[in-house]
Structure prediction request, 555 residues.
Amino acid sequence: MPLEKEIANASERLLIEQASGGSNEALATLFQVHSALVHRVAYRLTLSADDAEDIVQDVFVGLPEALAAYGGRGAFDAWLRKVTVRTALIRLRSTRRRDAMAARAEQQRTPPRPDGTIDRLAIIAAMSALSSDLRVVFVLYDVEGYSHAEIGRMLAIQAGTSEVRLYRARRKLRALLEER
Amino acid sequence: MRIPADEEARARAVRNAIESLDPPTLAQDTFARIVARRAEGARVPLPTADASFALSIQIARRVAGTLAALAAVLVLALWLRGRPTDSARSRTFADQTTLSPVDAACGAYPVTRDSSTLRHLMVSAFGVAAACGAEVRPSMPITVNPSQIRPGTYTYGSLTITDGLHTSVHLPNTFTISRSTWKGVPALLAVRDGPLITRVSVDSLTVSARDLTPLHWASWYPTQKPIGVMHADFDSGYVNIVLAGRFDTTASFPYPIEPGSLPFGWTIALAVPALPLAPGWHGTLGIALPIHPHAYKFAGKTWETLTLRVIARENITVEAGSFDCWKLQVGAPNDQSFMWVSTANHFVVRSRTTHHFDDTEFEDRVDLQRIDPAI
Prediction:
């Protein structure tokens, strides 16, 4: 392992230890380094700026106590990403915003572009129109790069179910984007 | 970005587009608010384990809800063991075992004379709403024919199959039914011994042999010293309960008496065998659920209505033998709950319900394992 990487890891371990002990300075550093990752993952899963910001807050408010469960096993950012995904999933389940998202997607429906291109707004609208079950699997597999086995464990579903949902999500996204 | 024709390329294009979707910038004061929340004592328990673990917790909570009555009895027993002197008790009695707002409301109900001790046992047997008088039970009298019920001992084994893969086998329930009299009136006596709720008690229900109206209920707690006995008389719309042994108290509460509307757990043994089943028959039973206030918020209701409809005639084989049965749909037509009842002898041969929690499927099955005397 390159020396710089080792130093960075040692420094991160120290920060984690200090944050776990209640140091706000250490928590601030972890926030500076990792909040963008947490924010981005939360936003991709919820497609809501408000929810994403709430998730960032919740993750970092709960982080010092949760660090005991990390225990230095594996890369910290991978662990934090998983915790963020689970936090976002709980929020998605509890708020049941599927209908609201579908309504929002309807509002955001834009006329198709004659040149066959897709833009940011079209993607958000199409993603929002997916049910949260499908969208979550699509984002976790296609965007975040988790395997079906990992997704199965996170969502308490079988790996095969994850594959089926991914297939459905892709098919529906294709249909939605071709409508445009 | 142009949409590519090829499926994988299309997915890649969408993925790239999504990866480029950066959220709006976080508010400048986000971290300051995090620190402020922590300073105010806010703590957010983060889900550091996978959902399968969380699901296990969820299942455990459901089981815990069912067993909450046992906990209440044990807590009460411990409390009574070290209860204060009479003068001290007069100051503290009312709130000693108040567990929730629902429970407190129950204690305030004027007809329930005992505000704490007996009420916890009453809810175990009859449901909190009945015990507190807080909820009007739906009225749904049905026609029943208790002469169809065959005396004998029926042993039911049950199991749960998760996702068609994992099978959990539960301890069997035994019902012994005999003909009897109660205060000079022809009656049926059913004694239940099984794992329901505690497995530290044997309880019995006496019903009218004429129309299945509940007459008397008794429960025996052999693990207590002195041995505890609780019995209840159903009388003109009220249940009067007497508890003896270590406990020593009485109470009464309203309980609308209707033929066939029996306390929880007696449906298979007494209510269903008395139904006049025939092609096309349908009817609705009311059942009191034994829900403790702790479990109330999870279950959401304390009365279950069981709508039954004969949908087919099938021959099925269980451990006790092969039987020609009426197949009953339990609940709405789309519900996945069925019961098979012997056409000749009217007892329940099998009951099967499929539940879905998120993506996990649970099949609960109850099968008749043995009949004594054999039929």
User: Anything to note?
Assistant: The interface with chain A takes residues 1-3, 7, 10-11, 13-15, 17-24, 26-27, 30-31, 33-35, 37-38, 42-52, 54-55, 163, 358-360 of chain B (CB under 8 Å). The first strand of chain B starts at residue 152 and ends at 162. Residues 220 and 336 of chain B are 36 Å apart (CA to CA). The radius of gyration of chain B is 26 Å.
